[in-house]
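Structure tokens please, single chain.
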Amino acid sequence: MEFSTFIGRFHPLLVHLPIGFIILAILLEWWERFTKKGKSNLIPTAWFLGGLSAVAAAVCGWFLGETGLYEEDRLFLHKWLGIALGPISFIGWWIKKGGNRYSPVLQSGFNILFIVLLSVVGHQGANLTHGEVYLTEFAPRPIKKLLGQNEEIALKAISNNPDSVVVYKELIAPIFEAKCVACHNNEIKRGNLNMSHPDSLLAGGNGGTVLMAGNLLESELFRRITLPPSNVKFMPPTSNVLTYDEIKTLEWWIKKGAGFTETVIDLGTTDDMASVLKRRFGLDATIRPWYERVQIPPLDSLKIAELRQLGFNVRALGTSNPLLDVSYLGRDLTAEKITALQSAGLHITWLSLGDTNIENDWLKDISGFTNLTRLELDQTGVSDAGIAHLTALVNLEALNLYGSAVTDDVLPLLQELSHLKRVYLSGTRVSPEKAEVFDKEAIDLTIIIAKNGNE
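Here you go.
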């Protein structure tokens, strides 16, 4: 492999020889025809030397192409046209050494055809080496427009909702498609690696697995893209290398488990990763409260009117938010009224029943309010038995139990509320000392309780 790479790297040196020999031969022929001098023996000699050097350049080019330094789909045309130049050059030598046996029209036509072919091959080679926009990168805007080149290549538009952006499908797969899949797909599997879909990516290549979920050091894929560019194993070994933002995106994905179905919000983001997502994709990955992320149709206005007739105060969170803030004032609350809330259970996110006559068993009816994020039960007779009905509230973030009848036994129940962030326990029978210990052990939960008369 190393020897063939050594031979292959002579291709850029040798490739200019056939260009020089044959262009010289064509110019010399046209000059002699213009001056009406006899045909020089240097012309067929130059064609012959051009053929030999074209074959040598093609052999070196073949080895260079086999190193994997170039994307296969972009290499194909340049490779086979370059190989064709060898025999075509010898055909030119045969025609030219024949003197006047072939008409001037045929000879001139062959010259023009060869120049066109040589130009196409040379242009393809330049694209492989310098990139497709090398010649026109600094061209005037009218010329770029004429050639159909945009000033900037826009990124694929994605949703600005982190809940709906699937990380692999919309952030990772496009990177692979742009930088890796040309050499690692269903047809072309360099290193026996296919990166065109998840199953084949997980299968790995000749060296085994290339992706180790949660472990950057054991992920060969990440190691290859972060090697020094001079390293023969650096990937991708073309001018189309990964950018800083693309590397950081892959690093984040692998660290978070390299899954294929999770959304941005599922993985969570650090400040630096949030900056990358904002800069590269225009995606605001700031974690928003649950009530801002829910997407459901608005509640029927007739149901809202029915709740208001029962004495509930019902307010929408905003003109574009379908969730509701519901409260009740007074000591005339009944089990039937609480049951009536179930018609709006999916839409209620804030519920205030503080300073009411709510009873423990009535709380069963709100245990299925999946979008409930804030519940106020302060100054009520609710006890530990009532809170036991609430452990199914998967998105509850704030719970006010100030002045209620709960005791130390409520603390394990609070632990079951996985998204609970704040709970108010002042004025209850919960021990401040036990609450403090529980608060220190809880990672994301803050307990607010009076200590020596102070909160």
